[in-house]
Amino acid sequence: MHDVRGYEEKNPEVVKHLTNGYPRFVVHPFARQLVKHFTASTPALHGRTLWLTSSAAMARALVAHLTSARGAELYTQHGLFGVSHPESADTSARAKVFLQNIGGFLSSREAEDHLVALGLLPAPHPEDVFKGDASAEIRRQLRSALTGASDADLFLANCGMSAVNAAFRAVNALQAPRGRTVWLQLGWLYLDTIAILQKFTSKPADYVYVRDVADLDGLRRIFAAHGTRIAGVVTEVPTNPLIQTPDLPAIAALCRQHGARLLVDPSMSSVFALDVLPHADLVISSLTKYTASEGDLTAGLVAVNPAGPDAAALRAGLAPLVEPLYARDAARLAWQIGQTRDVLARIHAATPQVVAFLAQHPAVKDVYWALQPGSRENYLRLARSPDATGGMITFTLKQLGGLEKFYDRLRLPKGPSFGMKTTLICPFMYLAHYDLVTTPAGLAELAASKLDPDLLRLCVGTEPVEEIIGALAEALG
C-alpha cells in the first residue's frame, strides 16, 4: 500500500521503479524510446514535449483539446502522428489525461515496428499470432456471441475507452440536432467512462448521475421530466466495482419509449458470458478483458444492434470515430480470442468457490459478485448459462484499517486490470479515485454511492482455485 500511495502521489522513489504499466496510464517504453529518438534528432523538437498518438485524427483531437496551450502543433514523421508543445508540466498533464480518457496513445507494437525500421531494435519480439485475416477472425468469434450482428455491425477499436468515446460521440452527433443533449450515467461506472460523460457533455447540467441502478421509479421520474432532452443512458452490466446488474430489459423499454439510446458495457463479465445486444442500441466492451487473456494487448468493441432505430446512422457515424486496432495487435488478439470460452469456463468454475470462502471468513465484511442478492435475477436474465458469472469479486474487511496489513501480506499478483488467466487484485478506489479516498468531500461522495474506500477488487484467474484461496486465507490470517 505504501507503493500504491507513492504511485498516486508521484513519489520519485516509487515512480522510478515503474518502467511499464497499464498502457493508458503509463506510456510504453517503446513509445518513450521513439520520442527520445525524434526529439534528439529533430532540431525543431528541441525544448518541446512530444506525444505520439494512435492516428492522425487523434492527434488533431489532442491539438483541439490543447487550444489554450500556446505552441501546440501537429507532428507527422515516418507515418507516425502526434502533437508537440513547449515543455510545460501543466500542458503535459492535460495531454496525458486526455489521451488516457479516450485511449489515444500509440500502440506498443506499432512503436516497436518503427524502432525496428529505424534500426533501434533488431527485430520484433517473437509471439504467436493468427496467420490469416485477423480482423475477420475476431469478428467471426464475436458474431457467435452477438447473435444477429453482422461484420458491418462490429467495430474494433484500439482499446475499450476508445470504443466508449466513439459510441458516445456517434450517439451525441445524432441526438444533439434533435435537441437531446442530456446523458444519464446509471450507477457508479469505470473512472474514464465517467470522465468522458463529465467532460464531453455540452454543459455540466447535461450530465446526470443516477446512483442507484435498481431505482427504476427514480429513472422513470427523470424520463418523465426530461425525456425529450435525453440523448442516452450509459451503464455497465454488471457495474464496476459493486457488480450490480440493473433490470436491463425494463431500462431498454424506457429508453425506446422516450427516444433515448442505451449504451451497455458488459466488460466485467464479457460479451461471451452475457447476452445484452438485444436490449442495447450499442454494446461497448473492452476486449482487453477475457478475450485478450494473456494480458499483453488492449482492444475494444462497439457493436450496433441491427434492430435498433438508428442502426444505419450509427454504423455510418462510428466508422470515422473508432480508433483502429493496429494490425499486429489484431493478429495477436485473433490468436487469443478463440480461447475465450475455455478461459471463462475455468474462471466460472473457480469464482463461486472463492466467493464462498470469502463470504464465510470472519475477517471479511461484504462480498459483491454477479450473483449477489438484490441483482442476481437481473443478471441471470442476461447470462448465457447459470454459471456464466465472470471472474470479478469485490469485498471489504471488517477491521478498520485492515486493508494495509492484508494487502501487504497477500501473495497474489496485484494490478489494475482484470479478465486475465492471471488472478489480479487491487485496492480499486485508491488506484481509480485517489482524489476521493484522500479528501473529506471525496469520502462523502463515496459514502453517498455506498462505496467503501478500502474496497478490494479481485478478478479470479485460471490458476488452481486452492492456490487462490490459500493465498487469501494466509493474508486474512
UniProtKB/TrEMBL annotation:
The keyword Kinase does not apply. PANTHER family: CYSTATHIONINE GAMMA-SYNTHASE-RELATED, PTHR42699. Its cofactor is pyridoxal 5'-phosphate. InterPro entries: Cys/Met-Metab_PyrdxlP-dep_enz (IPR000277), PyrdxlP-dep_Trfase (IPR015424), PyrdxlP-dep_Trfase_major (IPR015421), PyrdxlP-dep_Trfase_small (IPR015422), Trans-sulfuration_enzymes (IPR051750). This is PLP-dependent transferase. It comes from the Bacteria. GO terms for molecular function: cystathionine gamma-synthase activity; pyridoxal phosphate binding. GO terms for biological process: transsulfuration. Belongs to the trans-sulfuration enzymes family. It comes from Oleiharenicola lentus. SUPFAM superfamilies: PLP-dependent transferases (SSF53383). Pfam families: Cys_Met_Meta_PP (PF01053). Keywords: Pyridoxal phosphate, Transferase. The lineage of its organism: Bacteria, Pseudomonadati, Verrucomicrobiota, Opitutia, Opitutales.
